[in-house]
Amino acid sequence: MNGRETKGPPGGAPQDAGARATSRAIVVDAPGTHRLITVPRPQAGPGEVLVEVAAAGVCMSDREVYEGRRAPDYVRYPVTPGHEWSGTVVAAGAGVDPALVGRKAVAEGFRFCGTCERCRNAETSLCAAAYAETGFTHPGAFADHVVVPARLLHLLPDDADLRGAALLEPAAVIAAAIRAGAPEAGERIAVVGAGTLGLLAVQLLAASSPAELTVIDPRLERAELACRMGATEARTPVHSGEAHGYYDLVVETAGARTTAADACLLARRGGRVVLTGMFAEGALGIDPVHLSVSQLTVRSVFGAPSAAWSFAVRAYGAGLIDPTELITHEFPLERYTDALALVGGGDPKTGKVLLRP
Length: 357
Fold this sequence. Notes:
The protein is of the alpha/beta class. It has 10 helices and 16 strands. The chain starts with a strand and ends with a strand.
Protein backbone atom coordinates (compact mmCIF):
# COMPACT_ATOMS: atom_id res chain seq x y z
CA MET A 1 0.00 0.00 0.00
CA ASN A 2 1.62 3.20 -1.16
CA GLY A 3 0.56 6.67 -0.05
CA ARG A 4 1.75 10.22 -0.46
CA GLU A 5 0.34 13.63 0.38
CA THR A 6 -0.39 16.11 -2.39
CA LYS A 7 -1.84 19.59 -2.58
CA GLY A 8 -5.06 20.25 -4.38
CA PRO A 9 -5.90 23.06 -6.79
CA PRO A 10 -6.47 26.64 -5.60
CA GLY A 11 -9.94 28.06 -5.09
CA GLY A 12 -12.83 26.63 -3.14
CA ALA A 13 -15.79 27.72 -1.09
CA PRO A 14 -16.07 30.82 1.08
CA GLN A 15 -15.27 29.91 4.67
CA ASP A 16 -17.22 30.46 7.85
CA ALA A 17 -15.49 32.62 10.42
CA GLY A 18 -12.97 30.50 12.31
CA ALA A 19 -13.59 27.43 10.15
CA ARG A 20 -10.81 25.27 8.81
CA ALA A 21 -9.83 26.63 5.39
CA THR A 22 -8.57 23.34 4.02
CA SER A 23 -9.65 19.73 4.09
CA ARG A 24 -7.69 16.49 3.82
CA ALA A 25 -8.97 13.33 2.16
CA ILE A 26 -7.80 9.86 1.22
CA VAL A 27 -8.16 9.31 -2.53
CA VAL A 28 -7.88 5.82 -4.02
CA ASP A 29 -6.94 6.59 -7.62
CA ALA A 30 -6.97 2.95 -8.69
CA PRO A 31 -6.68 -0.42 -6.94
CA GLY A 32 -3.56 -0.44 -4.78
CA THR A 33 -2.79 3.27 -5.19
CA HIS A 34 -3.85 6.10 -2.90
CA ARG A 35 -2.95 9.63 -1.87
CA LEU A 36 -3.63 11.82 1.15
CA ILE A 37 -4.55 15.14 -0.44
CA THR A 38 -5.11 18.60 1.00
CA VAL A 39 -7.60 20.85 -0.82
CA PRO A 40 -9.70 23.90 -0.02
CA ARG A 41 -12.62 23.01 2.21
CA PRO A 42 -15.51 21.63 0.07
CA GLN A 43 -18.62 23.71 -0.45
CA ALA A 44 -22.17 22.49 0.05
CA GLY A 45 -24.21 22.92 -3.12
CA PRO A 46 -27.97 23.44 -3.41
CA GLY A 47 -29.79 20.89 -1.26
CA GLU A 48 -26.55 19.72 0.35
CA VAL A 49 -24.79 20.01 3.68
CA LEU A 50 -21.12 19.99 4.58
CA VAL A 51 -20.31 17.74 7.53
CA GLU A 52 -17.12 17.77 9.57
CA VAL A 53 -16.30 14.10 10.06
CA ALA A 54 -15.82 12.94 13.65
CA ALA A 55 -15.23 9.26 12.97
CA ALA A 56 -15.42 6.86 10.04
CA GLY A 57 -15.56 3.08 10.24
CA VAL A 58 -13.37 0.88 8.06
CA CYS A 59 -14.98 -2.33 6.79
CA MET A 60 -14.21 -5.12 4.37
CA SER A 61 -15.95 -3.23 1.56
CA ASP A 62 -13.34 -0.49 1.94
CA ARG A 63 -10.57 -3.05 1.67
CA GLU A 64 -12.25 -4.50 -1.41
CA VAL A 65 -12.28 -1.03 -2.98
CA TYR A 66 -8.57 -0.59 -2.28
CA GLU A 67 -7.66 -4.04 -3.58
CA GLY A 68 -9.91 -3.81 -6.65
CA ARG A 69 -12.16 -6.69 -5.60
CA ARG A 70 -15.44 -4.77 -5.59
CA ALA A 71 -17.70 -5.40 -8.58
CA PRO A 72 -17.09 -2.71 -11.24
CA ASP A 73 -20.72 -1.55 -11.20
CA TYR A 74 -20.40 -0.69 -7.50
CA VAL A 75 -17.34 1.56 -7.40
CA ARG A 76 -16.04 4.49 -9.39
CA TYR A 77 -12.32 5.40 -9.31
CA PRO A 78 -10.83 7.73 -8.24
CA VAL A 79 -12.81 7.71 -5.01
CA THR A 80 -12.57 8.81 -1.39
CA PRO A 81 -13.88 5.80 0.55
CA GLY A 82 -15.82 5.93 3.79
CA HIS A 83 -19.49 4.98 4.00
CA GLU A 84 -19.75 4.44 7.78
CA TRP A 85 -19.38 7.77 9.52
CA SER A 86 -20.69 10.44 11.87
CA GLY A 87 -20.05 14.13 12.25
CA THR A 88 -21.36 17.66 12.74
CA VAL A 89 -23.01 19.81 10.09
CA VAL A 90 -20.86 22.91 9.54
CA ALA A 91 -22.47 24.48 6.46
CA ALA A 92 -25.77 24.33 4.59
CA GLY A 93 -26.22 24.90 0.88
CA ALA A 94 -28.94 26.87 -0.87
CA GLY A 95 -32.43 25.67 -0.02
CA VAL A 96 -31.33 23.87 3.14
CA ASP A 97 -32.56 24.83 6.61
CA PRO A 98 -29.67 26.75 8.23
CA ALA A 99 -30.78 25.41 11.61
CA LEU A 100 -29.05 22.14 10.66
CA VAL A 101 -25.67 23.80 11.15
CA GLY A 102 -24.18 22.66 14.43
CA ARG A 103 -26.25 19.47 14.61
CA LYS A 104 -24.67 16.05 15.10
CA ALA A 105 -25.74 13.69 12.33
CA VAL A 106 -25.24 10.60 10.22
CA ALA A 107 -26.49 10.14 6.67
CA GLU A 108 -27.73 7.36 4.45
CA GLY A 109 -25.21 6.15 1.92
CA PHE A 110 -27.52 5.23 -0.96
CA ARG A 111 -28.30 8.34 -3.04
CA PHE A 112 -31.69 7.10 -4.17
CA CYS A 113 -33.79 9.06 -6.65
CA GLY A 114 -36.97 9.26 -4.56
CA THR A 115 -39.25 9.10 -7.60
CA CYS A 116 -39.07 5.57 -9.03
CA GLU A 117 -41.63 2.90 -8.13
CA ARG A 118 -39.34 1.23 -5.58
CA CYS A 119 -38.53 4.51 -3.83
CA ARG A 120 -42.21 5.49 -3.77
CA ASN A 121 -42.87 2.13 -2.14
CA ALA A 122 -40.34 3.03 0.62
CA GLU A 123 -37.80 0.50 -0.73
CA THR A 124 -35.09 3.13 -1.16
CA SER A 125 -32.24 0.58 -1.10
CA LEU A 126 -33.75 -0.93 -4.26
CA CYS A 127 -33.83 2.36 -6.19
CA ALA A 128 -34.13 1.74 -9.94
CA ALA A 129 -31.82 4.64 -10.83
CA ALA A 130 -28.14 4.10 -11.48
CA TYR A 131 -26.28 2.93 -8.38
CA ALA A 132 -24.88 5.83 -6.37
CA GLU A 133 -23.46 5.58 -2.85
CA THR A 134 -21.29 7.79 -0.68
CA GLY A 135 -17.82 6.30 -0.38
CA PHE A 136 -18.11 4.19 -3.55
CA THR A 137 -19.32 6.40 -6.39
CA HIS A 138 -19.25 9.73 -4.52
CA PRO A 139 -16.60 11.10 -2.13
CA GLY A 140 -16.88 9.49 1.28
CA ALA A 141 -15.79 10.20 4.84
CA PHE A 142 -12.14 9.16 4.94
CA ALA A 143 -11.65 12.88 5.02
CA ASP A 144 -11.96 15.93 7.24
CA HIS A 145 -15.27 16.80 5.56
CA VAL A 146 -17.96 15.09 3.50
CA VAL A 147 -20.72 16.66 1.38
CA VAL A 148 -24.08 14.84 1.29
CA PRO A 149 -27.66 15.63 0.27
CA ALA A 150 -29.47 17.13 3.25
CA ARG A 151 -32.46 14.85 2.60
CA LEU A 152 -30.32 11.86 3.63
CA LEU A 153 -29.42 13.21 7.08
CA HIS A 154 -30.54 11.58 10.31
CA LEU A 155 -30.06 13.94 13.24
CA LEU A 156 -28.67 12.73 16.55
CA PRO A 157 -29.21 13.97 20.10
CA ASP A 158 -26.89 16.79 21.14
CA ASP A 159 -25.16 14.51 23.64
CA ALA A 160 -24.67 11.62 21.21
CA ASP A 161 -21.30 9.87 21.22
CA LEU A 162 -20.07 10.35 17.66
CA ARG A 163 -17.56 7.48 17.94
CA GLY A 164 -20.39 5.00 18.43
CA ALA A 165 -22.60 6.80 15.93
CA ALA A 166 -20.07 6.03 13.18
CA LEU A 167 -21.38 2.46 13.34
CA LEU A 168 -24.97 3.41 12.62
CA GLU A 169 -24.55 2.42 8.96
CA PRO A 170 -23.95 -1.27 9.78
CA ALA A 171 -26.58 -0.93 12.52
CA ALA A 172 -29.05 0.20 9.85
CA VAL A 173 -28.23 -2.87 7.74
CA ILE A 174 -28.95 -5.07 10.75
CA ALA A 175 -32.11 -3.10 11.46
CA ALA A 176 -33.24 -3.90 7.91
CA ALA A 177 -32.53 -7.59 8.53
CA ILE A 178 -34.40 -7.64 11.81
CA ARG A 179 -37.39 -5.85 10.32
CA ALA A 180 -37.39 -8.48 7.56
CA GLY A 181 -37.06 -11.34 10.06
CA ALA A 182 -39.84 -9.98 12.32
CA PRO A 183 -38.67 -11.53 15.62
CA GLU A 184 -41.33 -12.21 18.24
CA ALA A 185 -40.96 -12.49 21.99
CA GLY A 186 -40.14 -15.99 23.18
CA GLU A 187 -38.64 -17.22 19.90
CA ARG A 188 -35.42 -19.18 19.50
CA ILE A 189 -33.01 -17.05 17.46
CA ALA A 190 -29.51 -17.68 16.12
CA VAL A 191 -26.97 -15.19 14.79
CA VAL A 192 -24.31 -16.63 12.49
CA GLY A 193 -21.12 -14.60 12.82
CA ALA A 194 -19.84 -12.36 15.63
CA GLY A 195 -18.27 -9.57 13.63
CA THR A 196 -19.60 -6.01 13.64
CA LEU A 197 -22.91 -6.96 12.03
CA GLY A 198 -23.35 -10.00 14.23
CA LEU A 199 -22.71 -8.18 17.51
CA LEU A 200 -25.03 -5.34 16.52
CA ALA A 201 -27.63 -7.97 15.66
CA VAL A 202 -27.24 -9.49 19.12
CA GLN A 203 -27.86 -6.13 20.77
CA LEU A 204 -30.96 -5.38 18.73
CA LEU A 205 -32.36 -8.90 18.91
CA ALA A 206 -31.90 -9.04 22.69
CA ALA A 207 -34.41 -6.19 22.90
CA SER A 208 -37.08 -8.46 21.33
CA SER A 209 -37.06 -10.75 24.40
CA PRO A 210 -36.11 -14.05 22.73
CA ALA A 211 -36.31 -17.28 24.69
CA GLU A 212 -32.85 -18.16 23.36
CA LEU A 213 -30.32 -16.06 21.48
CA THR A 214 -27.42 -18.15 20.22
CA VAL A 215 -24.31 -16.80 18.47
CA ILE A 216 -22.29 -19.09 16.21
CA ASP A 217 -18.69 -18.11 15.50
CA PRO A 218 -15.37 -20.00 15.49
CA ARG A 219 -13.62 -17.23 17.47
CA LEU A 220 -13.93 -17.77 21.22
CA GLU A 221 -13.15 -14.13 22.07
CA ARG A 222 -15.92 -12.84 19.81
CA ALA A 223 -18.42 -15.37 21.13
CA GLU A 224 -17.69 -14.35 24.71
CA LEU A 225 -18.21 -10.70 23.77
CA ALA A 226 -21.56 -11.61 22.19
CA CYS A 227 -22.68 -13.18 25.47
CA ARG A 228 -21.80 -9.99 27.32
CA MET A 229 -23.96 -8.10 24.84
CA GLY A 230 -27.08 -10.19 25.35
CA ALA A 231 -26.62 -13.59 23.73
CA THR A 232 -27.69 -16.50 25.93
CA GLU A 233 -25.32 -19.01 24.36
CA ALA A 234 -22.30 -19.22 22.07
CA ARG A 235 -21.46 -22.15 19.79
CA THR A 236 -18.70 -22.90 17.33
CA PRO A 237 -19.65 -24.00 13.79
CA VAL A 238 -18.38 -27.49 14.68
CA HIS A 239 -20.99 -27.81 17.40
CA SER A 240 -23.81 -26.00 15.61
CA GLY A 241 -24.89 -29.20 13.85
CA GLU A 242 -26.54 -30.24 17.10
CA ALA A 243 -29.01 -27.41 16.59
CA HIS A 244 -29.99 -28.09 12.97
CA GLY A 245 -33.70 -27.52 12.42
CA TYR A 246 -34.10 -25.78 15.78
CA TYR A 247 -34.35 -21.99 15.41
CA ASP A 248 -37.39 -19.91 14.55
CA LEU A 249 -35.20 -17.14 13.09
CA VAL A 250 -31.61 -17.21 11.85
CA VAL A 251 -29.75 -14.00 11.01
CA GLU A 252 -26.62 -14.66 8.94
CA THR A 253 -23.96 -11.91 9.15
CA ALA A 254 -20.63 -13.55 8.25
CA GLY A 255 -20.67 -13.80 4.45
CA ALA A 256 -18.32 -16.80 4.59
CA ARG A 257 -18.28 -19.59 2.02
CA THR A 258 -20.72 -21.91 3.83
CA THR A 259 -22.73 -19.61 6.10
CA ALA A 260 -25.76 -19.08 3.82
CA ALA A 261 -26.27 -22.83 3.53
CA ASP A 262 -25.50 -23.33 7.23
CA ALA A 263 -28.06 -20.71 8.26
CA CYS A 264 -30.80 -22.53 6.35
CA LEU A 265 -29.92 -25.83 8.03
CA LEU A 266 -30.23 -24.19 11.46
CA ALA A 267 -33.79 -22.96 10.87
CA ARG A 268 -36.74 -25.12 11.88
CA ARG A 269 -39.36 -26.16 9.33
CA GLY A 270 -41.35 -23.05 8.51
CA GLY A 271 -38.61 -20.86 9.99
CA ARG A 272 -37.13 -17.62 8.67
CA VAL A 273 -33.60 -16.89 7.50
CA VAL A 274 -32.17 -13.45 6.73
CA LEU A 275 -28.82 -13.18 4.92
CA THR A 276 -26.79 -10.00 5.46
CA GLY A 277 -23.24 -11.15 4.69
CA MET A 278 -21.57 -10.11 1.45
CA PHE A 279 -20.76 -13.38 -0.31
CA ALA A 280 -17.98 -13.93 -2.81
CA GLU A 281 -18.05 -16.13 -5.88
CA GLY A 282 -17.71 -19.78 -4.95
CA ALA A 283 -19.92 -19.57 -1.87
CA LEU A 284 -21.87 -22.76 -1.16
CA GLY A 285 -25.43 -22.57 -2.46
CA ILE A 286 -28.63 -23.29 -0.58
CA ASP A 287 -30.03 -26.80 -1.12
CA PRO A 288 -33.33 -26.28 -3.00
CA VAL A 289 -34.68 -29.61 -1.77
CA HIS A 290 -34.14 -28.62 1.86
CA LEU A 291 -35.56 -25.18 1.13
CA SER A 292 -38.79 -26.50 -0.33
CA VAL A 293 -39.34 -29.40 2.07
CA SER A 294 -38.66 -27.17 5.09
CA GLN A 295 -40.87 -24.35 3.78
CA LEU A 296 -38.30 -21.75 4.80
CA THR A 297 -38.70 -18.03 4.23
CA VAL A 298 -35.32 -16.68 3.10
CA ARG A 299 -34.60 -12.97 2.72
CA SER A 300 -31.42 -11.12 1.83
CA VAL A 301 -30.36 -7.59 2.72
CA PHE A 302 -28.06 -5.28 0.76
CA GLY A 303 -27.73 -1.91 2.43
CA ALA A 304 -30.62 -0.33 4.29
CA PRO A 305 -33.74 1.61 3.30
CA SER A 306 -34.60 4.89 5.02
CA ALA A 307 -36.98 3.21 7.50
CA ALA A 308 -34.19 0.93 8.74
CA TRP A 309 -31.93 3.94 9.24
CA SER A 310 -34.62 5.62 11.34
CA PHE A 311 -35.01 2.39 13.33
CA ALA A 312 -31.27 2.20 14.05
CA VAL A 313 -30.97 5.87 15.00
CA ARG A 314 -33.93 5.55 17.40
CA ALA A 315 -32.43 2.39 18.93
CA TYR A 316 -29.12 4.21 19.43
CA GLY A 317 -30.79 7.19 21.02
CA ALA A 318 -32.77 4.91 23.33
CA GLY A 319 -29.66 3.03 24.42
CA LEU A 320 -30.74 -0.31 22.92
CA ILE A 321 -27.42 -0.57 21.11
CA ASP A 322 -23.98 0.58 22.22
CA PRO A 323 -21.64 0.32 19.23
CA THR A 324 -18.71 1.78 21.21
CA GLU A 325 -18.20 -1.68 22.75
CA LEU A 326 -17.22 -2.97 19.31
CA ILE A 327 -14.45 -0.40 18.68
CA THR A 328 -10.91 -1.72 19.25
CA HIS A 329 -8.67 0.52 17.13
CA GLU A 330 -8.62 4.20 16.11
CA PHE A 331 -6.21 5.85 13.67
CA PRO A 332 -5.67 9.30 12.12
CA LEU A 333 -6.02 9.70 8.35
CA GLU A 334 -2.25 9.50 7.98
CA ARG A 335 -2.41 5.85 9.12
CA TYR A 336 -5.05 4.78 6.63
CA THR A 337 -2.96 1.82 5.46
CA ASP A 338 -2.48 0.59 9.02
CA ALA A 339 -6.22 0.73 9.62
CA LEU A 340 -6.97 -1.06 6.36
CA ALA A 341 -4.47 -3.81 7.09
CA LEU A 342 -6.22 -4.70 10.35
CA VAL A 343 -9.61 -5.19 8.67
CA GLY A 344 -9.95 -8.76 7.55
CA GLY A 345 -6.57 -9.62 9.01
CA GLY A 346 -7.96 -12.53 10.99
CA ASP A 347 -6.99 -11.36 14.49
CA PRO A 348 -9.95 -12.22 16.76
CA LYS A 349 -9.01 -9.29 18.99
CA THR A 350 -9.64 -6.83 16.16
CA GLY A 351 -13.13 -5.40 16.31
CA LYS A 352 -14.26 -2.21 14.64
CA VAL A 353 -11.51 0.01 13.28
CA LEU A 354 -12.11 3.76 13.05
CA LEU A 355 -10.39 6.60 11.23
CA ARG A 356 -10.51 9.82 13.25
CA PRO A 357 -9.82 12.82 10.99
